């Protein structure tokens, strides 16, 4: 005893990046090892390097924290490597690069294994390792007793670089096994190295480790048996304990330090080289950037660059040159130039995107000179991080851009970043619940509160809300385990579009994986890792609105002969002569306009009354969790409306009372953007830039990692110490927390605001064009086609029905355009396209177009349209030009043979015998409307409510409601478009639609329990309540009673479901925000009649 | 559905997984009254009715229950067919008069099923398809049936509705050729199946035996002797029928219909054809005596039926019984015989359970209960016994003390080996030891979520006797004074 190994280090530490095997984060492993006084730690996860950057950052943070506390940084060495698991029966080998070369060998080895396996797997064998063993230090792990030959082979291939690891697992015969291992190692001339191969930092984590083991095996704790570890020994142990365990072979305790000493590699050595493709020979990157920018500037301003712009450019060149960022700008420009050459609309956003250089290079359409945006505001010179530019592309054509990037840079130099998929509350409750043996019913009840929550933490109230006692021991245990597992990574996935490009081989920098999508590869580091190491990433993202705008520009060019581009759309400034567009937005007339079309945004528009470009920037950013949680919205509105004096929060003396003027001046003293929160931390709370940087990093991970308390104390404490109001400080922190979940920086809001402007301008001046473009770009945005069409019609656009002889696949425009008043496309009518028919195929539309003029359904059959296509055309009532109504067309379509007999086809004769008329009953108007909704999801005939109004006595239409005085009682009825409960708050918002428009209903939470069923189940809802009209004219109906009138809908037709679908992305209460796919249409036969419904017999024991 | 799952007035739904979503398959009246219908996602239903109880849907149990009901329905006619998921069909041709006509027969069926707690929708029709459809949709005439009665295919239904057709009568009026060319012959066949013209034959639950006898009782019989007497009479009647055919029975099936709907079924097989009432009665006696649960007549049997579905010519030669080698099946036959004699579950053997906890690693399992296919590990915890590593001593004793015996031990802290221990008053000096084998407690089964870890040592005393000891609790990490126990002796 007392035999303390000098400088012991654990060299086989796994982290939770050994998915479902390790239970602790890399940071926890590093911190615990440092706290135990170890000389260092070796982090080695199974066939991956995904966690090593986190460990590296944790070591860096340790040193920083020590420095800040005025302590000597601890002498702690990190070895980063991987635990190689083979498929050929070789015992696991841990590999640590001793040099930069070794690192490259290891990443190539892992890439090799990844690329030849399915996604998420890695196939390696011993010869692969021997091929890639240069510069690697290796530890073969026990059990190796039967693997003498493998040890010998590896020892022969890597002389002096191989150790035999030994561990004492408390299995009962440890010492005999150790002796055997020692003998075998000696026989091979390999030194023995003591380790414990911990899977978690402390023994208290055994339950968590047992739980993830069960998740991995898909079993419960009760049935897991010996698949669980027998004991809690796989934790980081003190040097003293290891000395006791390895007293038989004390020399093994000295080997870790010896191995560590030979490692001369550190992740900081990964130097990043920009690809040199974008720079022509003979130029330096900076030189070429300046040349290119000047050249583009001269093209844009042939009469001379405005002096303000010239000054901006000069200033930016200076900053870019000093930071060495020229290659980055050139790389982004390279990609953008390709897209523009192909006619793909794109726009950059992010901190560096709002620069004069980016504007001149065409990366963004926001003119910084016009809007007084200073580049230096967006780039922090002290931060050694690359600038950030995300580029949005048309969503339908982004793939072209991505494939071009692979082509230009090669797969070995370009790959997508990873996204780490973490356990979230829902998945954590479900999987842990399963492991604990709780019924799926119970866990689903726990994990999905009825509101489809996006809450970040599993809270007590949420358990209680489901009628389950949170103090019940089983539930309490679940709660504890869930909070432990939350934030643990589950697997790696590819980032939505973040590309990493390098000059040298990427696979010598980081291992590359196959993605689930064919032709995609991704690296195993995510955004934070890439930031931490200073690698360059360009986000190539998809944006539906760009597709819509491009289609609109195309329409305007072909139909009206005017050419527009993102940066030529005029006047987002007050003097642009575009007051009509701002007036439209101020009226909340914004269906389809980018970013400001949601109900919440529509409520904000009349209050904020945007009148210039920067107002749009604020409008985009203000309806977000950050400002809302920070309670910053109302103060801002009051100040903007002049109801409250603008005053800047000020510190006490001796600090400069105006210190926040630069930070908050533009937003009337109220912090609204993420950047402002960061600057506030530095200016008002005395954060160092490095600390603010850590705050920013942890903002993104607040949900998973915690660390909130530390920053809360530091920020609130720091601000109050400087004399700020405590309440203001608290709100600032809450806001930062809000940004954590949905951060929205000003630099992105500016780029988005430009698209808000362009789309609003299109909608205002070219309503027919805009509606057609929007319909053709579906699915996107907030509204279903029904609302888009209706909105167009309300703006005077003539909408023509789908017709087999007139409609193309896309919606088209008919007639000649002219300018009448504010509308520039008057005279153009919108012809609905065949794409509006749900289930119709584009290729069918092409066949129809080729067969025109179409005279009969048989013509279509001969043109190769399958029976399903014919039926859909008939059901869509698209055969009017054939003289067929819906019912007759349907009856004919059922009969028309599809694979037309060639003989008859050649003779061009009708191959169907003449048939007696079936004499089918006529379709009632209600049935027509219902069928329209079912097939087209919209009806030009009228709104169902117009037909049903007589069954809804005493109700007002939306138009009548809008004219009702404040405080009056009113009853309205309408089809439910949207149900929302923002942030699980006190109010439920319901949007009803009728034949004249929409009514916004507010239900207070206390009424909810009483009318829960009607609220949740109604397709047609009747609401009694009190009218509330805000000074800005925003109307709400404050509900007092809610009635489910869905049965009335059935009066339209017993054959068709007339329910218009819920608006897309409407955050339906049950399914949560759904910005992915529109929900599939409900099947027509709802088991409506009780007799059709299966009823469970009253229970009784059958014995 | 078991009794006690939920009170009848609690809304209840049976759910099943459908592509990752939980979908309601069936509901009770209370849930239906709240607007919860099958097909709804559970999440949606809960959003409307948070108090909704949900249990997993078990289609196999549904089918079994339906079969059980259909079995019981053979009391009214031997021709009964279950039609999952919701119904069964009884061919009452020539049976109605036994219960005083169709109306009282239907009344009897409804009354009995109500008594069992089922809601019933009866229908009488000329064909099975028509009867099922009328019952399912609750209409009186086939012409009024909705079109769903003809086809489950959604496209067909939509097509018919789009044409403005509402019910079977509307379709029947259309020219057959026009229907066939649009919806295929299958629809016409379904239409015809509703009329007598093309009635599909019933495939009954059990083929009607040619040799059969039954007796009904106005007041149910309860006494065992009375049942036996009835059985003997029925055997005699069947024997007479068999004699007339020159045949003997190989399988005799007795059905005892309880007035509450339950049917007890007993059958005996004979190795050779048999029609001697007394011999068969003896077999039934043995069979009844061997029953695990004695026959429970409840409130009595009101119908007893004996059928002889398998017969053979009586003069068939006997099976050879010439001994020969023991068949592989003999063990299982022995097990069968012992089980028949001793009762199910009485015959046991030691099984291995997959766990680290030594005293839970073996248990007595029933030899007869082979795990049914699809059984989960929880139902059947038995696992393969671990094989011994060659050259290694046994890790654990064969038998363990239950409970482990407390001993006094001299040992090193924190986790050193025992040096000397006292057991049953005798002091043993430890000459050799190996360990520890560290086994932690099953935290999830303990209230405190932790429990003490055991360190097991194999030790040999000075006289060469070997013991299995453990220290209970990790020193300092879990307890200040770990106890010591002797858990077993090595042979």
Detailed description of the structure:
The complex is a heterodimer of chains A (1103) and B (491). Chain A has a 7-stranded mixed beta sheet with strand order 1-2-3-4-5-6-7, sandwiched between helices. A 7-stranded mixed beta sheet of chain A has the order 8-9-14-11-10-13-12, with helices on both faces. The N terminus and C terminus of chain A are likely disordered. Chain A is globular, with a radius of gyration of 33 Å. Chain A is of the alpha/beta class and 1103 residues long. In chain A, helix 5 links the parallel strand 5 and strand 6. With 491 residues, chain B is α+β, with helices and mostly antiparallel strands. Helix content of chain B is 27%, strand content 29%. Chain B contains 12 helices and 18 strands. In chain B, strand 7 and strand 8 form a beta hairpin. Chain B is extended. The two termini of chain B are 51 Å apart. The relative contact order of chain B is 0.06. Classes of the chains: A alpha/beta (1103), B alpha+beta (491). At the A-B interface, helix 7, helix 8, helix 19, helix 39 and helix 40 of A face strand 1, strand 2, helix 2, strand 3 and helix 6 of B. Strand 25 of chain A pairs parallel with strand 2 of chain B.
Brief sketch in words of this structure:
Chain A has 1103 residues and is α/β, with parallel strands linked by helices. Chain A is 42% helix and 14% strand. In chain A, helix 23 crosses helix 35 and helix 35 packs antiparallel against helix 36.
């Amino acid at each position: 005893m007392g035999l303390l190994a000098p400088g012991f280090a654990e060299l086989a530490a796994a982290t939770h990046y050994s998915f479902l095997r390790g239970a602790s984060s890399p940071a926890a492993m590093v911190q615990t090892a440092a706290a135990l006084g170890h000389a260092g730690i070796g982090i080695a996860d199974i066939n991956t390097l995904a966690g090593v950057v986190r460990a590296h950052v944790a070591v860096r943070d340790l040193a920083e924290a020590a420095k800040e506390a005025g302590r000597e940084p601890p002498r702690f060495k990190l070895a980063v490597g991987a635990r190689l698991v083979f498929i050929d029966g070789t015992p696991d080998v841990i590999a640590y690069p001793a040099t930069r070369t070794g690192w490259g060998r290891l990443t190539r080895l892992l890439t090799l294994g990844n690329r030849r396996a399915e996604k998420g797997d890695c196939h390696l064998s011993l010869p692969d390792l021997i091929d890639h063993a240069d510069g690697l230090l290796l530890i073969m792990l026990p059990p190796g007793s039967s693997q003498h030959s493998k040890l010998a082979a590896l020892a022969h291939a890597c002389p002096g670089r191989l150790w035999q690891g030994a561990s004492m697992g408390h299995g009962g015969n440890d010492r005999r096994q150790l002796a055997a291992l020692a003998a075998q190692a000696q026989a091979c001339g390999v030194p023995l190295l003591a380790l414990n191969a911990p899977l978690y930092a402390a023994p208290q984590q055994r339950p968590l480790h047992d739980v993830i083991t069960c998740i991995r095996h898909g079993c419960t704790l009760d049935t897991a048996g010996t698949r669980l570890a027998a004991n809690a020994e796989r934790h980081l142990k003190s040097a003293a304990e290891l000395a006791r365990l390895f007293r038989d072979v004390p020399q093994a305790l000295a080997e870790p330090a010896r191995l560590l000493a030979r490692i001369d590699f550190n992740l900081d050595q990964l130097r990043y080289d920009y690809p040199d493709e974008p720079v022509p020979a003979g130029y330096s990157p900076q030189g070429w950037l300046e040349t290119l920018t000047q050249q583009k500037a001269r093209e844009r301003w042939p009469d001379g660059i405005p002096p303000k712009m010239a000054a901006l450019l000069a200033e930016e060149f200076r900053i870019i040159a000093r930071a060495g960022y020229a290659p980055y700008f050139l790389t982004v420009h390279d990609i953008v130039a390709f897209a523009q050459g192909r006619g793909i609309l794109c726009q950059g956003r992010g901190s560096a995107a709002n620069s004069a250089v980016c504007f001149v290079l065409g990366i963004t359409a926001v003119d910084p000179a016009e809007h007084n945006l200073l580049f230096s505001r967006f780039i922090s010179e002290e931060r050694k991080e690359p600038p950030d530019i995300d580029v949005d592309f048309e969503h339908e054509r982004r793939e072209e851009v991505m494939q071009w990037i692979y082509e230009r840079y090669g797969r070995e130099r370009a790959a997508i970043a990873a996204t780490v998929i973490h356990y979230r509350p829902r998945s954590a409750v479900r999987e842990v619940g399963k492991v604990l043996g709780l019924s799926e019913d119970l866990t689903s009840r726990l994990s999905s509160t009825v509101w489809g929550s996006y809450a970040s933490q599993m809270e007590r109230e949420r358990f209680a809300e489901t009628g389950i006692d949170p103090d019940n021991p089983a539930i309490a245990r679940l709660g504890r385990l869930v909070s432990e597992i939350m934030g643990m990574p589950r697997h790696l996935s590819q980032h939505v579009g973040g590309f990493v490009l390098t000059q040298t081989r990427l696979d010598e920098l980081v291992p590359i994986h196959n993605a689930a999508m064919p032709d995609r590869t991704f690296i195993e580091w995510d955004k934070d890792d890439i930031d931490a190491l200073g690698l360059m990433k360009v986000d190539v993202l998809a944006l539906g609105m760009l597709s819509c705008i491009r289609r609109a520009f195309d329409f305007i060019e072909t139909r009206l002969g005017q050419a527009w581009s993102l940066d030529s759309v005029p006047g987002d400034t007050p003097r642009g002569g575009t007051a009509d567009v701002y007036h439209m937005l101020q009226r909340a007339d914004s269906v389809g306009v980018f970013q400001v079309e949601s109900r919440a945004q529509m409520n904000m528009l009349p209050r904020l009354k945007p009148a210039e470009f920067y107002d749009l920037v604020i409008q985009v950013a203000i309806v977000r969790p950050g400002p809302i949680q920070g309670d910053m919205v109302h103060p801002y509105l009051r100040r903007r409306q002049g109801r409250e004096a603008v005053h800047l929060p000020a510190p006490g003396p001796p600090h400069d009372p105006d210190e926040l003027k630069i930070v908050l001046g533009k937003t009337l003293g109220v912090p609204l953007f993420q950047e402002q929160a960061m600057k506030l931390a530095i200016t008002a709370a005395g954060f160092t830039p490095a600390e603010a940087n850590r705050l920013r990093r942890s903002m993104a991970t607040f949900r998973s990692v915690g660390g909130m308390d530390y920053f809360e104390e530091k920020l609130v404490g720091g601000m109050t110490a400087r004399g700020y109001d405590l309440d203001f400080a608290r709100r600032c922190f809450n806001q930062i927390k809000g940004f954590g979940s949905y951060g929205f920086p000003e630099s992105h809001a500016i780029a988005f605001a430009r698209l808000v402007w362009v789309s609003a301008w299109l909608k205002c001046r070219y309503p027919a064009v805009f509606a057609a473009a929007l319909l053709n770009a579906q699915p996107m945005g907030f509204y279903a086609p029904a609302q888009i069409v209706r909105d167009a019609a309300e703006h005077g656009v003539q909408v023509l029905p789908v017709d087999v002889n007139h409609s193309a696949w896309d919606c088209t425009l008919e007639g000649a355009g002219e300018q009448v008043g504010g509308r520039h496309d008057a005279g153009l009518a919108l012809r609905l396209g065949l794409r509006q028919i749900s289930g119709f195929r584009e290729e069918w539309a092409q066949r129809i177009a080729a067969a025109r003029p179409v005279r009969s359904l048989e013509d279509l059959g001969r043109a190769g349209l399958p029976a399903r296509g014919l039926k859909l055309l008939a059901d869509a009532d698209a055969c009017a030009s054939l003289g067929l109504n819906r019912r007759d067309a349907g009856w004919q379509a059922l009969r028309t043979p599809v694979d037309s007999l060639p003989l008859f086809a050649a003779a061009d004769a009708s191959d169907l015998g003449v048939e007696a008329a079936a004499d089918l009953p006529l379709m009632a108007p209600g049935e027509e409307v219902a069928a329209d909704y079912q097939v087209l999801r919209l009806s030009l005939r009228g709104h169902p409510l117009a037909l049903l109004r007589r069954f809804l006595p005493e109700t007002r239409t939306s138009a009548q409601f809008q004219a009702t005085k404040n405080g009056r009682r009113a009853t309205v009825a309408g089809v439910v478009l949207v149900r929302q409960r923002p942030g699980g708050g006190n109010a439920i918002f319901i949007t009803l639609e009728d034949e004249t428009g929409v009514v916004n209903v507010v239900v207070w939470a206390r009424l909810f329990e009483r009318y829960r069923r009607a609220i949740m189940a109604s397709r047609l809802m009747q609401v009694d309540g009190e009218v509330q009209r805000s000074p800005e004219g925003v109307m709400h109906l404050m509900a007092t009673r809610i009635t489910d009138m869905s049965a009335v809908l059935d009066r339209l037709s017993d054959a068709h479901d007339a329910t218009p679908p819920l608006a897309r992305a409407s955050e339906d209460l049950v399914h949560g925000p759904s910005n992915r796919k529109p929900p599939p249409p409900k099947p027509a036969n709802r088991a409506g009649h009780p007799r059709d419904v299966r009823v469970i017999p009253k229970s009784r024991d059958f014995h | 559905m078991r009794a006690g799952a939920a009170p009848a007035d609690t809304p209840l739904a049976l759910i099943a997984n459908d592509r990752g979503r939980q979908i309601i398959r069936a509901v009770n009246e209370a849930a239906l009254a709240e607007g919860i219908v099958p097909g709804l996602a559970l999440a949606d239903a809960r959003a409307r009715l948070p108090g909704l109880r949900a249990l997993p849907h078990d289609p196999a149990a549904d089918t079994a229950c339906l079969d059980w009901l259909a079995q019981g329905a053979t009391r009214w006619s031997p021709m009964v067919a279950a039609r999952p998921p919701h119904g069964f069909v009884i061919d009452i041709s020539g049976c109605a008069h036994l219960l005083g006509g169709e109306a009282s027969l239907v009344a009897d069926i409804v009354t009995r099923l109500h008594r069992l707690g089922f809601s019933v929708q009866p229908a009488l029709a000329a064909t099975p398809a028509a009867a099922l459809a009328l019952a399912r949709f609750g209409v009186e005439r086939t012409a009024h049936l909705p079109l769903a009665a003809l086809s489950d295919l959604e496209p067909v239904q939509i097509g018919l509705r789009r044409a403005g057709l509402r019910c079977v009568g509307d379709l029947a009026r259309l020219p057959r050729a026009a229907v066939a060319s649009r919806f295929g012959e299958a629809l016409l066949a379904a239409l015809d199946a509703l009329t007598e013209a093309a009635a599909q034959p019933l495939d009954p639950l059990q083929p009607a035996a040619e040799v059969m006898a039954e007796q009904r009782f106005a007041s149910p019989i309860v006494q065992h002797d009375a049942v036996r007497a009835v059985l003997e009479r029925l055997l005699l009647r069947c024997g007479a029928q068999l004699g007339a055919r020159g045949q003997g029975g190989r399988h005799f099936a007795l059905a005892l219909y309880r007035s509450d709907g339950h049917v007890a079924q007993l059958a005996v097989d004979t190795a050779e054809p048999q029609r001697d009432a007394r011999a068969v009665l003896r077999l039934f006696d043995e069979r009844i005596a061997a029953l695990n649960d004695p026959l429970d007549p409840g409130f009595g049997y009101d119908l007893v039926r004996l059928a002889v579905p398998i017969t053979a010519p009586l003069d068939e030669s006997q099976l050879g019984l010439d001994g020969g080698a023991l068949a592989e099946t003999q063990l299982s036959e022995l097990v069968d015989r012992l089980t028949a004699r001793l009762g199910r579950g009485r015959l046991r053997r030691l099984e291995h359970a997959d766990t680290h906890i030594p005293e839970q690693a073996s248990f007595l399992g029933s030899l007869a209960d082979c795990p049914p296919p699809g059984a989960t590990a929880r139902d059947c915890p038995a696992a393969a016994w671990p094989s011994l590593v060659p050259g290694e001593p046994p890790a654990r004793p064969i038998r363990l003390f239950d409970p482990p015996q407390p001993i006094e031990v001299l040992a090193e802290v924190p986790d050193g080996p025992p040096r000397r221990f006292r057991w049953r008053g005798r002091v043993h000096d430890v000459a050799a030891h190996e360990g520890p084998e560290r086994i932690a407690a099953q935290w999830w089964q303990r209230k405190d979520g932790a429990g003490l870890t055991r360190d097991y040592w194999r030790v040999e005393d000075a006289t060469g006797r070997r013991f299995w000891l453990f220290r209970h609790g990790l020193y300092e990490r879990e307890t200040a004074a770990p106890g010591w126990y002797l858990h077993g002796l090595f042979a």
